[in-house]
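INFO  loader      accepted 1 record
INFO  loader      residues=455
INFO  predictor   begin
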Amino acid sequence: MDTSRILVVDDDDAHRKMLKMMLRTWGFTVEEAGDGEDAVALVREKPFDVVLTDVRMARVDGIEALKAILGYNPALPVILMTAYSSVETAVEALRIGAYDYLIKPLDFDLLKETLELAIERSRHSVENRELRRQLTETPANTEIVGASPALKSMLDFINTVAPTEATVLITGESGTGKELVARALHGSSARAKKPLVTVNCAALTESLLESELFGHEKGSFTGADKRREGRFMQADGGTLFLDEIGEMPLTLQAKLLRALQQGEVQRVGSDTPIHVDVRVLAATNRDLRREAREKRFREDLYFRLNVISIEVPSLRQRGEDIPLLAASFLQKFAERNHKIIKGFTPQALDALLRYHWPGNVRELENVVERAVILCQGDLISETDLPANVTNAPPAQEAADTRPGEDLAGLPLEAVEKRAIELTLRQTGDNKSEAARRLGITRATLHNKLRKYGME
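INFO  predictor   done
INFO  writer      dumping tokens
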């Protein structure tokens, strides 16, 4: 006897009673609510495996109930029903995080199948509840280095999202560390002991990418001399990370969408569907919302992927992490190159702080690796850094001046002194913040304050 608990929400008494009776004949335990407000209250009071709710209701409709339920429990599958096959409503429901969307009059075979798939996901969450509690109390991933507010906020969000089964879209500029976020999500999930499989969607042609994802049968194309398991099947029970998802061809996006919706894949050259249990994470440096609007990316796939979105901050948004990141890379590459290097000179660290890092953390890593290789002493100096880093202008906000103030023709020392005065005024004489804005270390700022008699 199935003990799964389903909450049926519908203000049509007859339809709600009919569903309750049918679900009970299938072996489910059923409770009912006459509107969205009562449903939200019940979800807060009792555990459910699935919520099945109508969209159009008098007091609180299904969309509003969906938002409130997922706000309280983002792992609870919510299936919406409606007699109005509106694309706009469907897209809105999926965007918010609905598990699925069914049209009235209901196809009962489809309803039963959808409920069973949703319950399977819900049970997976319940069985690992204790493990998830323990994992949320540990750091998400030691590979992610930094202590800035922007990074701490992201790590806190990762710890919240990782234990769920939600699909996650990881966005951010190139080089920010989106793959590290994927590793952290997998490592802090109930799937951590299963594989994390990565596919770079930009690295393969369409035909090769399809085979890479779904596998192929022997003889399905030239060179297919044996059957091959695809990455979906390799990731069964674990996590599949689709990097550069924005580069995936449109025709292949339709097949990916089906795999996500049905939990099934088909090898190239085969008509036999294969069930897979995979959590999908995707990453892109593109604006997929705009790509979808301009028909370069499927809108339905975008909303299916974007159940949860995590934006990785650029290095410019977490500049206070640069010294810690640089030290981490220094240790890594010094060990790899069998060198003993204690750290950075103040001038070298100032240069790293002043630079704007268009290539983000990846560029910083490359710069530190180069510096370690070139360094001849026990400290990395400015001469070990690339010219574009050492010659970078001060941060824009440090160059702030009074409206109409003309510094042209003044000695450089006078300009520097004026920049320090203005920055200290803006920060309320907070020297740590002023040093950060000026792109220098606090020690360097104190030296300059003494030099100009400003202490």
